[in-house]
Structures are given as structure tokens and as C-alpha cells.
Input
Amino acid sequence: MATLEMTINGKAVVLELDGMRPLVDVLRDDLGLTGTKIGCREGECGACTVLLDGQAVNSCLLPAMKAHGRSVITIEGIGTVESPHPVQTALAEAGGVQCGYCTPGFVLSAVALLESNRQPSVDEVCEALEGNLCRCTGYKRIVQGVLDAANQMDAFE
Amino acid sequence: MIEEDLKGQYCFPVDVAEAYRLKQQYGEQARYIAGGTDLLLLIERENNHPHLLIDLTRIPALHRLEVSNGRVLIGSAVTYSRLLSFEPILSGVSFLAKAIRTIGGVQIRNIATLAGNLINASPAGDTLPPLYCLEAEIGIDGPLGQRCLPIREFVLGVRKTALHPSELVTQMSFDLPGPGWYGSFEKLGLRRAMAIAVASVSLLLKVEERKITQARIALGAVAPTVIRVPEAESCLSMQSLDDQTIEEAAHLSTATCTPIDDVRASSRYRREAVHGLVRRGLRVLRNQINAQE
Output
């Protein structure tokens, strides 16, 4: 067993766990943060994307212990129905959501991009999202949503 | 301590010596982990959970990334994303940067390391052909001391390396190609992002007074390890890149490879792919060389 101390969505937690367990299982099963989804469980689909110290990572490939002493942000820490993040609003308005299963992962990848690059090009958006799969929308509206969010965030500041 | 408590331990050694001492102590019950993007899947697949994971990514010395006397030094805990934001990699070995960009997506590149790709020793490892062209040297540390091996002696076969059980890779290094050197990387995958190579080719040429004075050609995914192709390399020697020379080098490259049939492609298709990739790479370099003149 190993001891994990991390900050999750701004809140400090301490857990005793098997050090081989991937972060996604700890988030969903131990902490009840089921907004992080499991698609392929092998780092292909990006549904499990979370931010580790601000960087997008696949939580299915990451031993939870790698978050020891670090900060993790999940979709629950990004926005709420009452107060959505600009990326969430823009995706909804652009029609970049259908079944919604991949959406938390896309939102986190997009947030990570926009934190470091406020005016991304189409190519930069596509590169930032290439580790996220969507089987419904065909990507065009997702990319448009992220570009819209960038414009809105830029105008807001 | 009950048996269950022994399982699933995880530690962050502060230096290399502490890491290999722990590995020695636990033997096969311990495994090193850097990015872990392959390791976690491997552990699940083998269903052989080690008692201890020794995480190397918080050892400061392994985060070294610098150019010293014209040589690039890359610590084994350096992630792909960090390499892609390091100017000497982008401008000095852009073909290695191109290979790195074909790996996974951003989420993988933020965690995974160049050393991990090397130690996995898959013949389809995307960064290996460029590292073979650069004749990278691998720095190793362990209970018996430090040593250094050329990459061709480090990778022994499919998923086999020259590492002894408690040893670990500390860094990779290579000379930064100077003026007159031209490098390329071409990969054929089933799609652009997130795909394993069907075949890949890296080229590195030194050109002096319009003639090729050194040629290095490395092929990926067509033999048990990445291979160099001496026959094709020597046919380029003292030549300029006309169509006939390019065809000959492409032909000689396919003659050396021994590709397998698998779910991604047949052996015959892979040979054709090598021919096409070598030709494409040499044409790209010809354009670069002409643009310089």
C-alpha cells in the first residue's frame, strides 16, 4: 500500500491505496468524481483526460501516485451547470456535443490549450485535441467551439 | 506485515543510487517507472503486479536537458512535451521533433519520455530511427557503476536491451548536426495521430560541395530492431541526389529488411512502404539541399 496526498479541484485529500492503481479508478471509485470517463482504458481515446499541474494527461495510464504532492483538476473543477466554463458554453452553442461521453475529456484538453495559448490557430486546436476521440460529431463543431471559446475568453479579459 | 501490505508500494527515490539500491533489494518484485504510459498497460496485460514501483521522475539529475560542447544531453525523465519546447531540438534536429510529434496525443507526450521509447525497444518505436541516425549514446547507471553504450549495442532485440536487472538509463546524448547536415523522418501509419508505425525511415546526410560525404539510413518496424542499411548508405557516398541515385538507395534499403506480417500490414506491403519512404525522404532532403544553395 502507498499513501497519496494530492489536491483535487482545490481540495486536499489523503488516501491509502495500491500504488499500481490508475488515477481514473481512484477519481471515480474512491472519490466519486464520475465526470471523468473511461473509454478505452489504454490511452487512445482521451475520455479520461484530467489536468495534472495544469497539463492534460490520460488518467487511465497514470498511476494515481504520480499525483502525490500535485494538483489535479477534473471536469468537476472546471464548471457547473449554473456557472459553466466558457469552453463548455461554446461547445454547447457550437453543437460540439452529442452523446456527451467524450466531452469532459475534450473540455479539459481545450482548457489546457487555452491556458497556455489564448489565440490558437485551427491547426493548434487540432493538435491539442488529437488525443481525444469523438464518435458522434465529426470534430468540426468541437474545433469551432474551442475557437469560439478562445475569442470569448479573449474579449472578456 | 501481512502479504497484502507488501503489494502496491510506490516510492520516489531522491537520487539514482537510492533507485538502484531499492531495485537490488526488491529484485523482480520491483520495477522502474518513468512516464509509465506503456508500463501500466503491460502490468495489467501480464497480470503480474510488482510489489514496488520505483518512480524515477523526481530525481533532479534525470531532468537534465542541455547542449554542452555541441552535444545534446537528454535526461531519462525528460518528457516529449519538454523536448518539443526545447529550441535546440526544434531547430537542430527537427526530424527527431517530427518523430516525437507522431507519438500519441498531447496527453501522452506530457507524461511519456524519450528514454521510455528507447527502453521498450520496440522495432516500431517512433523515435528510434532518428536516434540510430544520430548514433546516440546511452548513459547507464547501476550497482556496478556507470557505463555508456552506442544505441546499436543497447537495443538487442524485440523488447530486449543490454540493461542488467538493477541498471537504469540516466541519459541519452548525441552530437547536434551542424551546417551541411540534413535529416528527415518519414512514417507510414494507418492514420496521422495516435497510430503505430507500419514502417518508418530516418535519413541523415552530410553534404559538402554538392556531394554526399556521409549517409545514414535507419529503418523502423521492418526487422527485430531498428536497422541501418550499409549497402544503401554506401551507394549514396560521393553522389548527388539525382533520381537514379534515389531509386537505387530506395531499392537497396528494401533488400536488407525482414518485415513481419501482422494486423497492420503484410511483409510485402512493408517492403513497398520502405521503398516509398526512403524515396520520399531523399526527395525532401534534395529540396532542402537545393534551397540552401
Residues 181-292 of chain B form a domain with the Enolase-like; domain 1 fold (CATH 3.30.390.50). Chain B has three domains: 3-55, 60-175, 181-292. Chain B touches chain A at residues 4-5, 7-12, 33, 36-37, 40-41, 43, 49-50, 52-53, 55, 57, 81, 104-108, 110-111, 192-194 (CB under 8 Å).
